[in-house]
Design a protein that fits this description.
The complex is a heterotrimer of chains A (about 200), B (about 220) and C (about 210). Helices cover about 70% and strands about 0% of the residues of chain A. By secondary structure, chain A is mainly alpha-helical. Chain A is globular, with a radius of gyration of 18 Å. Chain A has one domain. The longest helix of chain A has about 35 residues, at about 35-70. Chain B has a domain at about 1-150. Helix content of chain B is about 70%, strand content about 0%. In chain B, strands 1-2 form a two-stranded antiparallel ribbon. Chain B is flat. Chain C is of the alpha+beta class. Chain C has 2 domains: about 5-35; about 55-200, no CATH class. Chain C has helices spanning about 5-10, 10-35, 40-50, 145-150, 155, 180-200, and strands at about 60, 75-80, 85-95, 105-115, 120-135. Chain C has a 5-stranded antiparallel β-sheet. In chain C, strand 4 and strand 5 (about 120-135) form a beta hairpin. Chain C is elongated, with a radius of gyration of 27 Å. The chains are: A mainly alpha (about 200), B mainly alpha (about 220), C alpha+beta (about 210).
């Protein structure tokens, strides 16, 4: 059991990192990672929505949509759940803590169309845990606990990549870069080197 | 006049506002699906189909949908189109369906589609929106296929699945290679289009000064005589 | 606000349009879901076609419980390929790495002809790897190794079984250098299929 949990954590955070290995949530990765601080805020917001979305979509799919035989409506249902959650979260944070809202709230509307959230909801629809955690022996069936743990760890992995990229880009601002490589191209190449480092986890 | 207008819409979608290279939108699909040329072409065409259908429908309904609920309405329409596409692919092209995996439902959150719906289809007539959808989609397909061809050739020595070279460079098949090739492609595309744009402007400026078949202007001093 | 005003308000209009779109979308998808429905049979054929390498249609064959386990391993499932009359057999062979406790699971395509009094085995057309248990050197078993099973059809038709005996090699020895125990389990998986065919599927011809 402990080994299973450890493998889920390592897989979701490092070896199957959402941004650098699975290519989910690249838009905020390129758009909002100019500074470490904005990377942290975005990462926490995404993690929060990921866990909440999984908490709603997984039971919704398993206990309502499958018995009713309406799996084909999953995309519409999921995107609605995510959009509604984001709206609610925005209102709640605005009420509870205006300071937090100022630092994090502005990123919330961007999250609705973040593929990492819909991606985690879709990926977790497998019946066997080994479907999302490569290297795990088959036969452990998926449940809400594992799903939430995976979503949390995927969010942590997302935050990690955002923060690392923020650090790299803060330094890169000051470097002389060829004109045509400025902006997106050099960021992509930097991401490539980071992806190489994360790739090593998959080899272990 | 109309042909010129449609030409401009198409040119904008394909080159000037190329979604993949110029606007850098829909990056997840670009990076995730470009392991082989066939897969990236399939992804590009899938996005093009969704883009065309959603653009046409949204353009048709643009006067019916109230402004306040336009984003949820667009998302429902796009999600419906993607679900339809998913059913069709699963039935008729199961290989592509398997290869696309989670990136197929993620077409819904591809910012290019919602972006075109919001910026173009909700304000323009049906035909314009259809052309815009196809042009943007083909621009994206071209870019994706280019990246797919490069990665497939360097990564597994083949071209559209046909083995042409006897080498494999593992770097290009994994995620690091995807970022690297994409970055270099953006730089090259921007470089080439900027050069072409400069050359075009220079050419235009020259033809303005000396129009075809026109006599050189007489020197100012002589004209007075 | 009176009821009449509410029905004329912008909020009502927005809500009505949104609900209408959702309903139309749902109905459209429900219709297409019925039209494009993929039956379990079609799904099975797709999976089997991938193993087979060409598109085929198949029927599951029930595995008889008393013969499912033999000296070489276990028969998991059998499909009869209706297009060419071959059998596609999924078997797990024992005697692999880890003191003989590990196993290798393979798909074997058995070709046969309809003869008098039953079916006669003519050979093995294809062997496809599926999974293993505890085999560290399974990647050493190359495509050439699996193809090796299809090269000895005369001896197989005569009633032979494969072996991975490097000490006493004979015509039916199929062994991948460096992975003799995994080779043993793979040979046993193929033998399980052969043994089951001879005992049950042949219908008493041999």
């Amino acid at each position: 059991m402990a080994a299973t949990i450890l493998l889920i954590v390592i897989s979701a955070v490092f070896s199957q990192n959402f941004i650098l290995v699975k290519f989910l949530g690249i838009c905020p990765f390129l758009g909002v990672s100019k500074k470490v601080s904005s990377g942290v805020s975005m990462g926490i917001a995404v993690t929060l929505v990921m866990v909440l979305a999984t908490l709603v979509t997984w039971p919704l799919y398993t206990y309502i949509m499958v018995p009713l035989g309406i799996e084909y409506l999953e995309i519409i249902f999921f995107i609605f759940v995510i959009a509604a959650l984001v709206q609610m979260l925005e209102k709640i944070i605005e009420k509870l803590s205006p300071a937090l809202y100022r630092s994090m709230g502005i990123y919330l509307p961007l999250i609705t169309t973040n593929c990492a959230i819909l991606g985690v909801a879709e990926l977790l629809l497998v019946s066997d845990l080994s479907g999302v955690v490569p290297g795990l022996e088959a036969g452990i069936s998926m449940n809400l606990g594992f799903a939430l743990l995976y979503a949390l760890c995927a969010g942590v992995g997302f935050t990690l990549a955002m923060v690392l990229m923020g650090g790299v880009r803060e330094k890169m601002e000051k470097l002389p870069v060829a004109k045509c490589m400025k902006g997106f191209p050099i960021t992509m190449v930097a991401a490539s080197f980071m992806a190489m480092a994360f790739y090593v986890f998959a080899l272990l | 006049m109309n042909a010129k207008k449609y030409g401009k819409i198409a040119y904008d979608g394909l080159i000037t506002n190329n979604a993949t290279f110029k606007l850098v939108l829909g990056t997840c699909a670009t990076l995730g699906m470009s392991t082989s040329a066939v897969n990236s072409f399939g992804m590009g065409i899938s996005v093009t189909v969704v883009l065309l259908l959603s653009n046409v429908i949204i353009s048709l309904l643009r006067k019916v949908i109230p402004n306040t609920v336009r984003i949820p309405a667009f998302i429902v329409i796009i999600a419906t189109m993607v679900t339809l596409l998913r059913m069709v692919l699963e039935k008729y092209i199961p290989d592509l369906y398997d290869a696309m995996g989670v990136f197929l439902p993620l077409i819904v959150v591809n910012c290019v589609i919602l972006g075109r719906a919001e910026a173009f289809a909700s304000k323009n007539p049906v035909l314009d929106s259809a052309i815009d959808g196809v042009a943007t989609g083909l621009g994206l397909t071209f870019a994706l296929t280019l990246i797919g061809v490069i990665r497939e050739f360097l990564g597994s020595g083949s071209f559209f699945g046909i083995k042409v070279m006897d080498f494999t460079i593992g770097f290009f098949t994994n995620s690091a290679g995807a970022f690297f090739v994409y970055g270099i492609c953006i730089a090259l595309f921007v470089l080439v289009t900027n050069r072409a744009e400069l050359a075009r402007r220079a050419g235009k400026a020259r033809t303005l000064r000396i129009p075809d078949g026109a006599q050189p202007l007489p020197e100012p001093g002589k004209e007075e005589n | 606000m009176t009821v009449k005003e509410f029905f004329k308000s912008n909020a009502f209009k927005s809500l009505a349009v949104l609900i209408a779109i959702v309903l139309v979308a749902g109905a459209l998808l429900a219709i297409f879901n019925d039209i494009l429905y993929i039956s379990d049979e079609e799904r099975l054929n797709r999976t089997l076609s991938k193993i087979y390498g060409e598109s085929v249609s198949a029927q599951p064959v029930e595995v008889s419980a008393e013969d499912a386990e033999n000296e070489y391993g276990t028969v998991n499932s059998i499909y009869f390929i209706t297009d060419d009359g071959n059998y596609l057999v999924n078997t797990t062979g024992k005697g692999g790495f880890r003191d003989g406790a590990g196993t290798v699971t393979l798909w074997t395509v058995i070709a046969c002809t309809e003869g008098e009094g039953g079916k006669a085995l003519t050979g093995i057309e294809k062997v496809v790897y599926e999974s293993n248990e505890g085999q560290t050197y399974i990647s050493t078993l190359s495509g050439a190794f699996y193809e090796g099973f299809t090269q000895k059809n005369d001896l197989i038709a005569a009633g032979g079984y494969f072996n991975a005996d490097k000490n006493a090699p004979d015509d039916l020895t199929n062994i991948a250098t460096g992975a003799s125990q995994s080779s043993n389990a793979a040979c046993n998986a193929v033998n399980t299929a052969l043994c089951y065919f001879r005992a049950v599927l042949s219908g008493g011809a041999q």
